[in-house]
Design goal:
It comes from Streptomyces camponoticapitis. Keywords: DNA-binding, Transcription, Transcription regulation. Residues 1-37 form the HTH deoR-type domain. The protein is α/β, with parallel strands linked by helices. The protein has two domains: 53-158 and 295-324, Rossmann fold (3-Layer(aba) Sandwich); 160-292, Rossmann fold (3-Layer(aba) Sandwich). Helix content is 38%, strand content 17%. Strands 4-3-5-6-7-13 form a six-stranded parallel β-sheet, sandwiched between helices. The longest helix is centred in the middle third of the chain and has 17 residues, at 188-204.
Amino acid sequence: MSDLAERLGVAPVTARRDVEALAARGLLDRAHGSVSWPRGQGPAGSAPGAGSPVIGMLAPAAAYYFAEVIRGAHEAAARLGARLILRVSDYRSEDDASHAAGLLAAGAQGLLVAPSWTAPDHPERYGDWVAALPVPTVLVERLGVPGGPLDDLDRVRSDHAHGVLLAVRHLIRLGHGTPLLVARADSPTAMAVRAGYARALDAMGLRAPLPVLDSSSAERRPALFEEAARGLAAAVRAGRATAALMHNDEDATWMVRRLAELGVRVPDDLSLITYDDEVAALADTPLTAVAPPKRAVGRHAAELLVGRLTVPADEAEPRVHLDLLPSLRVRASCGGPPAR
């Protein structure tokens, strides 16, 4: 037990309590001062039988958007008798490869990988190590460079372009002109929303009333957020916009409050749809939101990877690129048609 506590870098009392809890669930054998795997089982651990697959998951964060992705993957792995181990890279792209190596060293036989890309050039700069992984790999909520080596991997992602189309179409059907886009540029989702906005306008034969308003967190980059708020308020007052789509939820809740201070009310003066649907329903004015199928992405990705690990190679299906469609959840921030 003392060796275990030292190796894990925890207090002996913490190790003892955890061992007691695991032993009570039949996952460890505990004797006086020592601990061992149950007879016939190895580090595959939580699933019945020593041959249970171990899958690793690399995520850029364990909160906000990716909390649901992780939850879906964990639930699917448990249902299929696999063990999921997780590493979080905290959006440091340069550390992704070492985290993946750590998962492999911990026994992962396959990987679910969501790299910490935060800029348009990151897939090209930090994508080679993903394609070179020596185990079955599923790319999660990410796209590589078109035509690049990552195209040969399995992947599961939300179709953010479709989500943007849902939002734009809803606002147009309410009688609004082309909505403005207010968006970040610091994540793959943000970049996909921006690209999806251009595609949606093109598909519907619309023209943006103004260029995309760059935004950010009101806490991290307050000057940029304030510039976006004032730009949006000015567009409303000038009659150039009665509706907007904003990425993401946290920024949108701040934006509604700031717009009110600037004399623009949601939804009376501006109909607003946000993207992500993490906290949109909890805003003072509940926000209509595009909801990517985050939990389903994690579930399908884990199911795909476990299938790769358990089906003989000569019976394996072709590689899969699976795009799941977001949904639109209508709330109070999109009232009725715009005021005339």
